[in-house]
Amino acid sequence: MTASPSVFPYLPERLAGLEELAENLWWSWHPAARMLFKMLNRAAWKESIHNPDKMLRELPKAILTAASQDENFLRHYDLVLSRFREYMRHNGCSILRETCPAQEPLIAYFSAEYGLHHSLPFYAGGLGFLAGDYLKECSDLHVPLVAVGFMYPEGYVRQRLSESGWQESIEQGLDREAASITRLLNQDGKPMIVKVPLMEPPIHVMVWQVKVGRIPLYLLDTDIDSNEPWNRGISARLYTGDLEQRLRQEIVLGLGGDEVLQQLGIKHSVVHLNEGHAAFALLERVRDCLAEGFSLEDALIQVRRTSVFTTHTPVVAGHDVFPFYLIEKYFQSFWTSLGLDRETFLQLGTHPDAPTAGFNMTAFALRLAGFKNGVSKKHGEVANRMWQSLWLQTADEPHHIEAITNGVHVPTWIEPKMELLFNTYLGADWLDDHDNPFLWQLIDEIPDEELWRTHVWLKIKLLDVIREQSRRRFATDRAPASLVLTGGALLDPNVLTIGFARRFATYKRAELILANLGRLQKLLGDRWRPVQIIFAGKAHPADDPGKMILQRIYNACRNPELCGRLAFVENYGEQFAQYLVHGVDVWLNNPLPPMEACGTSGMKAALNGVPNLSILDGWWLEGYNGDNGWAFGDAPETGDRDQDDSEAIYRLLEERIIPLYYDVADNGIPHGWVRIMKNAIKTVGSQFSARRMTKEYLRNFYAKAIP
Ligand SMILES: *Cc1c(COP(=O)(O)O)cnc(C)c1O
After folding, report:
1. Radius of gyration, CA atoms only, the chain
2. What sign for the dihedral angle of Cα 571, 577, 580, 585?
3. Helix axis angle, 281-291 relative to 324-338, nearest 10°?
């Protein structure tokens, strides 16, 4: 199989390496590479929304020719290209080499979503970013891993609010040709097409590749001519609400994904499922074992020994359950081919607490994977309780769900200016060893003035970005004035700024801080020490309660009684998240415990010196140390959780956060605040990096699962 040659029409010979760079997302987490594209042409870089693939296709020949003769540009080009080639040189994973010196094991990682960059809209939220960050870190650590996911051609849903604050979705089809993705071709130069095993009528998938540093990510695409219309739509968008179509998605991802790896000649020895959506991949492994002559019993043991499953949510609706009749419709021939009867097969996915509810993908994955984990210590406990009845009948199965707390990919989420500051005080090579806790003690060496100035610069940049978006909405889209005002036009860089941004799932309680408007109004409208709040986030298109929360927040933003200190910024995604987590003063998080399995956006903020004001749930139970942010939610409950938690937020703001923020020395620096900022950075840098997390997966799971 070969990848198709991509066409950048005017690329001069001297700059041929730009194609290599543009076609590998490595550029996205290396500021020097991003700078290279920006140097080529600032306006075009901005116009392409930081997408080198798109930019190189559209740049006029004259600009490229000029660059190929510009000595300064060429110097930087040569430097970046040699760093990239050095990075790509293969030298093996030192951690796996310790445990299995002889062979190169291959891990196949399956996930329904990947959040890698905003030009690749294959994500909905945290699960996707976790997967995306994981691939980048596996690349950095030389982990021999390949990844499988979906190409969602209609993944780009732009969020727009109507004048009444109702969320509307504008679908923007993905331009597959203008992103860092390549179609895989057969030897004869035709697109590689793979047939999903055992499905009648047949379902075909086309395969695309995204290069994430050293890690290949294969994306399945059902939107091809040889599929019937219903089949073409299987991969149209993430998490369709139609149960049968959703089952077909998961069949394609699991069975089809495994088949694609086989067709590519990839012989993986370990499977890692990121959530249960791809759990059918394990069925193919059972089938392979049976084909090799194993008994069913032994096949299951073998599959368990080499399979890893990560569960991500305690929210019951977050686990797919398919009615038995649908499973029967699609798997009848499959279980016959395994030599199983209906009962035995369905039993694999039955939850004893709800035996008639249907086939539960998480129960199925937990039964077939020997290595399983939740994504924070607390979530590990919750998951063990949630699923304990699965193992009552079969005491001999290894059943403990371990905990591996999520982390964020530091090179992706550190803001480049912050990275430069760290270079000065932590040493220019701090990124190479960034999971070393000792390193982070050096944060104290940064003069308060420097950290504060960097932060203020990032805050101003955030507000600039928001204002520019508002201006465009006004001037280009002719959006009504009320939308422009609520979109952030009134924000003030001198005001203590709270950020709240995430998916608008109801358990996240986005409007909690609006619970007592009178009390909030006093804080927002304070003449000397005001507060402002920036909200952002999308509700799932089918989630009307989520959209109603969003609308109530919008109405609050529109309410002049609240002093013009609230803003809702449309279309939250990877790009705006970058500005937001870098630029606000406080990151607010108040889900209903224990629903937040881990949470990662707060880590991204803290890494950049933005302390968390968060409920004690998920990672914050491990991260909060009394001096690196603020916590609530541990008081005895009075029966009204929303009331208790909102009270606690107001009290922390009134008594601690606002006074500390506005306690500024003569030199203009709030030293007490900067101390909290530094502690926040230290905490996340040393404990909540994707590097620490990935090493735990390597040592606790992969090293043991590799045969
Ligand atoms: C990190 C991230 C998330 C996940 O945030 P949570 O804290 O887990 O809710 C969601 N969306 C975007 C765009 C992100 O960058």
Report:
1. 25
2. positive
3. 20
Spatial separation of the C-alpha atoms in residues 700 and 106, rounded to whole Å: 16
* Model pLDDT for residues 445-472, shown as the tens digit of each residue: 999 999 999 999 999 999 999 999 999 9
- Amino acid letter, residue 463: L
Other Cβ atoms within 10 Å of 142 Cβ, number: 19
Tokens linked to 147: 């990844």
Backbone angle region of 436, left / alpha / beta, with phi > 0 → left and psi within -120 to 50 → alpha: beta
CATH 3.30.450.20 fits 413-688, yes or no: no
Across 111-138, b (16+ Cβ under 10 Å) vs e yields bbbbbbbbbbbbbbbbbbbbbbbbbbbb
Between strands 496-501 and 531-536, the pairing is parallel
Does ligand 1 lie within 6 Å of residue 577's CB atom? yes
Domain boundaries, the chain: 2-88, 107-406+694-705, 413-688
Give the tokens for residue 468: 């520019």
CB atoms near residue 593 (< 10 Å): 19
- CB of 599 shorter than 6 A to ligand 1: yes
Q: What is the pLDDT of residue 201?
A: 83
pLDDT, tens only, 305-320 = 999 999 999 988 889 9
The CATH number corresponding to 107-406+694-705 among 3.30.70.260, 3.40.50.2000, 3.40.120.10, 3.30.450.40 equals 3.40.50.2000
Below-50 pLDDT ranges, the chain: 1-5
Structure tokens at 215: 């890690």
Say how many C-beta atoms besides its own lie within 10 A of residue 325's C-beta: 9
pLDDT of residue 3: 45
Q: Phi-psi category of 147—alpha, beta or left, where left has phi over 0 and alpha has psi -120 to 50? A: beta
- CA 61 to chain centroid, in Å, comes to 36
Comparing 107-406+694-705 with 413-688, is the CATH topology the same? yes
> What is the pLDDT, as a whole number, of residue 103?
59
Question: What are the E-state strand segments in 562-621?
Answer: 566-569, 586-589, 612-615
> Ligand 1 test: best mutation among 600, 612, 617, most atoms within 8 Å of CB?
600
| Cα(42)–Cα(46) distance, integer angstroms | 6
Answer yes or no: are the C-beta atoms of 632 and 645 closer than 8 Å.
yes
Tokens of 552: 């109530």
Q: Which residue has the tokens 């982990």?
A: 143
Q: Which residues contact 112 (CB under 8 A, 6 or more apart)?
A: 127, 149, 150, 238, 239, 249, 250, 253, 274, 275, 277, 278
What pTM, to 2 d.p., does this model score?
Answer: 0.96
656: DSSP letter? I
Cα-to-centroid distance, 42 and ligand 1 (Å): 28
- Going by alpha carbons, the residue nearest to atom 9 of ligand 1 is 502
H helix count then E strand count, the chain = 32, 23
| Smallest CA separation from ligand 1 atom 5, residue | 601
Would you mind telling me the total number of residues written for the chain in this entry?
A: 707
Q: Is the CB of 129 under 6 A from ligand 1?
A: yes
Q: Regarding beta strands 496-501 and 586-589, do their DSSP bridges make them parallel or antiparallel, or are they unpaired?
A: parallel
pLDDT digits (tens, 9 = 90+) for 5-63: 457 888 999 999 999 999 999 999 999 999 999 999 999 999 999 999 999 999 999 99
